[in-house]
């Protein structure tokens, strides 16, 4: 019955980092994005690489305002300081983030379906952020239940 939030994070224009500085630089940039994001989450939260240049973070017990605050902190901490990559170059990395929350109903036990809807809603918010010009946070307008 507790709230759960999901942040979907995409590194904006990641292919350009690989193309301009090489795949080692891209790998270093991804590792630094993950390190900075991890520095912002609570001990009970879980972050993982979701694929390519995307990450997902699950926030146990977090409702929309707390999830939005975390997304904004991660957005700021990653974008505010350039990342030093292979060859000594410094790359400014921006992120697009999608945020969604869920609050399971007391009698609901279909957690797999809830999780799938939560991820899909966070992913949809992420794509709205990308469509709106990237380098921003978008929040789902409703809570999955």
Quick summary:
By secondary structure, the protein is α+β, with helices and mostly antiparallel strands.
What does this structure look like?
- By secondary structure, the chain is α+β, with helices and mostly antiparallel strands.
- Helix content is 42%, strand content 25%.
- It has helices at 14-21, 23-38, 64-79, 111-131, and strands at 4-11, 46-51, 54-60, 83-84, 90-91, 95-102, 137-139.
- The longest helix has 21 residues, at 111-131.
Topology:
Blueprint (H helix, E strand, L loop, with lengths): L3 E8 L2 H8 L1 H16 L7 E6 L2 E7 L3 H16 L3 E2 L5 E2 L3 E8 L8 H21 L5 E3 L6
Parallel strand pairs: 6-7
Antiparallel strand pairs: 1-3, 1-6, 2-3, 4-5
Helix pairs in contact: 1-2
Q: What oligomeric arrangement do these chains adopt? A: single chain
β-sheet strand percentage: 15-25%
What characterizes the major β-sheet?
5 strands, mixed
Shape designation = elongated
Based on DSSP secondary structure assignment, what is the total number of beta strands? 7
Report the mean per-residue pLDDT as an integer.
95
Helix content: 40-55%
| Rg from alpha-carbon coordinates | 16 Å
Rounded to the nearest angstrom, the distance between the terminal CA atoms is: 10 Å
The class by helix and strand makeup works out as: alpha+beta
Low-confidence stretches: none
Major sheet: arrangement of strands = 2-3-1-6-7
What is the H/E string?
EHHEEHEEEHE
- Number of H- or I-type helical stretches: 4
């Amino acid at each position: 019955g507790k709230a759960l939030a999901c942040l979907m994070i995409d590194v904006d224009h990641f292919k350009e980092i690989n193309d301009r500085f090489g795949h080692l630089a891209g790998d270093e940039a991804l590792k630094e994005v993950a390190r900075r994001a991890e520095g912002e989450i609570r001990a009970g939260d879980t972050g993982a690489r979701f694929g390519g240049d995307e990450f997902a973070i699950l926030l146990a017990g977090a409702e929309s305002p707390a999830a939005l605050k975390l997304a904004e902190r991660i957005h700021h901490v990653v974008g505010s300081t350039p990342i030093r990559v292979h060859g000594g170059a410094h790359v400014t990395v921006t992120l697009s983030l999608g945020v969604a929350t869920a609050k399971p109903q007391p009698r609901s036990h279909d957690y797999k379906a809830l999780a799938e809807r939560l991820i899909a809603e966070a992913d949809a918010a992420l794509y709205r952020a990308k469509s709106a010009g990237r380098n921003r946070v978008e929040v789902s307008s409703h809570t999955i239940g």
